[in-house]
UniProtKB/TrEMBL annotation:
InterPro entries: GatC. HAMAP family: GatC. The keyword Chloroplast does not apply. Heterotrimer of A, B and C subunits. Belongs to the GatC family. NCBIfam families: gatC. Its EC number is 6.3.5.-. It catalyses: L-glutamyl-tRNA(Gln) + L-glutamine + ATP + H2O = L-glutaminyl-tRNA(Gln) + L-glutamate + ADP + phosphate + H(+); L-aspartyl-tRNA(Asn) + L-glutamine + ATP + H2O = L-asparaginyl-tRNA(Asn) + L-glutamate + ADP + phosphate + 2 H(+). It comes from the Bacteria. Pfam families: GatC. This is Aspartyl/glutamyl-tRNA(Asn/Gln) amidotransferase subunit C. Allows the formation of correctly charged Asn-tRNA(Asn) or Gln-tRNA(Gln) through the transamidation of misacylated Asp-tRNA(Asn) or Glu-tRNA(Gln) in organisms which lack either or both of asparaginyl-tRNA or glutaminyl-tRNA synthetases. The reaction takes place in the presence of glutamine and ATP through an activated phospho-Asp-tRNA(Asn) or phospho-Glu-tRNA(Gln).
Amino acid sequence: MSITEDEARKVAHLARIAVDDAQLPALARELSGILHFMEQLNEVDIEGVEPMTGVQPMRLKRREDVVTAGGMPDKILSNAPDAREGFFAVPKVVE
């Protein structure tokens, strides 16, 4: 798949990148190269391959899942603009 100069101009506009008309052919070639590489990746057989979290095989750090009450409601509510009776108070939004 190749990208035309008009498509490159549209991509640059959508990305909010200022690109001179003289640079559009080079941008179109770069984008076409990226799409070509993506097409090559689609040809790779990944059947049965487990997803990885990184390139080094290691287990993620885990902690025991324990339910707690938090134990610090005063500290949590200290930054609230409005707190009443131990809860965040918000303006009524129902008409």
